[in-house]
TrEMBL record:
It holds the Pfam family RepSA. This is Replication initiation protein. The lineage of its organism: Bacteria, Bacillati, Actinomycetota, Actinomycetes, Kitasatosporales.
Length: 463
């Protein structure tokens, strides 16, 4: 068996389980379940049943029970956004994020934004952390401070030149307060805009609105930075044109000024000194123009970039994607030196700043905010996008079963009773291999379909 398993690219234990799964009763139904989850890596298992009855007569129109399913379980997608945990669900999350961001750039009436927003001033801004000590980098054509020209994937990139003098405490405390810095930035940004156009803050709000869509990304050094789409709207939001004084140049000036004003005062705690946390000096603001015409960065590129990093977290720096209980676990998990020191700094600082929950977020190098956020009127919501997908699948199921569509009835004539209980999660090794192949096939099929659509329509942009 080992020779056959090697030919299949599987270890003998996985290959043996693949044969067991393929020969078990209900294999076709198992494949159907895994396909409906998109090839989820860690599906949720449910026990339960549903009964749909005619409300007037009590007649059973449809019934379903997991007793008839393989293993007596129904598998549903885990919905985890992390690509390190579940590539299939993260791919779906990234697609939703793409459409959310894109709707706020090109307009989509079904997602709450008119096509006229393409005429609104908008920029793609990047706000970074300050320096906590010199690190190995690739400064253009010049060598690193260490005298070496590092290749792009060199493992030392982002690590300190001198770990003993690097401000690890400052780095994790900054990450821990990054969401507060962003909140203050949005407040000061509105104030800076009002000041520059000679209006009171109230008058500026009565004439314009700002909309945001942002994502957090980890630099190789382990510091969080934010990429944000910032858009000028009129007084009534995306449906109204911005005032005459709203411009990309105004946004650029105000963003730099607001970022320079932001600070979070952190009092001394025990042996740890007081600190003033603020944004770094490297702030990048780039205009986004309609159709990418003459712009350094296009609408497509912005939406794709935000979607890509919405599914990634601190594990891109070499840390782990789950909570760490103690220092010994870092050794067992093989965490590299730099992220290990950052995690240990979180543990060391936890008691000094108990309200910041640094130990709980040590695996995130102190960061405790949401990775993808938006202002209320930027565009649609991820929940709304998920609901559209669920409604579509429910309509398909009703049509297949011949059940009436509730939207076509003046009064609901059916009653559905359901009972579900949690029954576990995950896959056996053979099921995991099968799910991974299903996810790959689904993704390849969709990518080919989108390439064909794009080839026939030069203005089509899709995730």
């Amino acid at each position: 068996m080992s020779d056959t398993a090697t030919m299949a690219g599987l270890d003998p234990a996985t290959f043996s389980d693949v044969l067991r799964v393929a020969g078990a009763p209900g294999f076709d139904r198992l494949q159907e379940q895994l396909r409906r989850t998109g090839g989820c890596s860690d599906p949720i298992h449910l026990h339960g049943a549903t009964v749909t009855r005619d409300k007037a007569t009590g007649h059973v129109l449809h019934s379903y029970s997991t007793d008839t399913e393989p293993g007596g379980r129904l598998r549903i997608a885990c919905g985890n956004r992390r690509a390190s945990r579940c590539p299939a669900c993260a791919w779906t999350y990234a697609g939703d994020t793409y459409h959310l961001i894109r709707a706020g750039l090109v307009g989509d009436p079904d997602k709450g934004t008119p096509h006229t927003i393409r005429e609104h001033p908008r920029v793609f801004a990047t706000l970074t952390a300050p320096s906590f000590g010199p690190v190995h980098n690739r400064p253009g054509t010049r060598p690193c401070r260490c005298g070496t020209h590092h290749p792009e994937e060199a493992p030392e990139l982002g690590t300190p030149l001198d770990p003993e003098t690097y401000d690890y405490a400052g780095a994790v405390l900054w990450n821990n307060h990054a969401s507060d810095l962003w909140r203050y930035f949005t407040i000061y940004l509105r104030r800076e805009i009002a000041k520059r156009v000679g209006l009171t803050q109230k008058a500026a709000r009565e004439q314009s609105r700002l909309a945001f869509g942002k994502v957090a990304e980890y630099q190789k050094r382990g510091a969080v930075h934010f990429h944000a789409v910032i858009r000028f709207d009129g007084a009534d939001g995306p449906d109204s044109p911005p005032p005459y004084w709203a411009s990309v140049a105004l946004l650029d000036e105000a963003i730099h000024a607001a970022a320079a004003r932001v600070q979070v005062d952190l009092p001394a705690a025990g042996e740890h000194p007081a600190r003033v946390l603020g944004w770094g000096t490297q702030i990048d603001v780039r205009p986004i123009k309609a159709f990418g015409d003459g712009a350094e960065i296009t609408e497509q590129a912005v939406a794709s970039y935000v979607a890509k990093y919405a599914t990634k977290a601190a594990e891109t720096t070499g840390t782990v994607d789950r909570r760490v209980g103690n220092r010994e676990a870092l050794v067992l998990l093989g965490v590299p030196d730099h992220p290990r020191r950052l995690i240990e700094a979180c543990m060391d600082l936890h008691d000094a700043y108990p309200g910041r929950k640094l130990r709980d977020w040590a695996h995130m190098l102190g960061f405790r905010g949401h990775f993808s956020t938006k202002s209320r009127r930027y565009s649609t919501t991820l929940g709304a996008l998920r609901q559209v997908r669920a409604d579509y699948r429910a309509a398909q199921q009703r049509a297949a079963l011949g059940l009436p569509d509730p939207d076509d009835q003046q009064e609901t004539t059916t009653l559905t009773l359901a009972h579900w209980t949690y029954a576990g999660h995950g896959h056996t090794p053979g099921e995991s291999w099968l799910a991974a192949n299903i996810h790959r096939d689904i993704q390849q099929s969709r990518d080919l379909a989108r390439e064909e659509i794009a080839a026939n329509d030069t203005d089509t942009e899709g995730w």
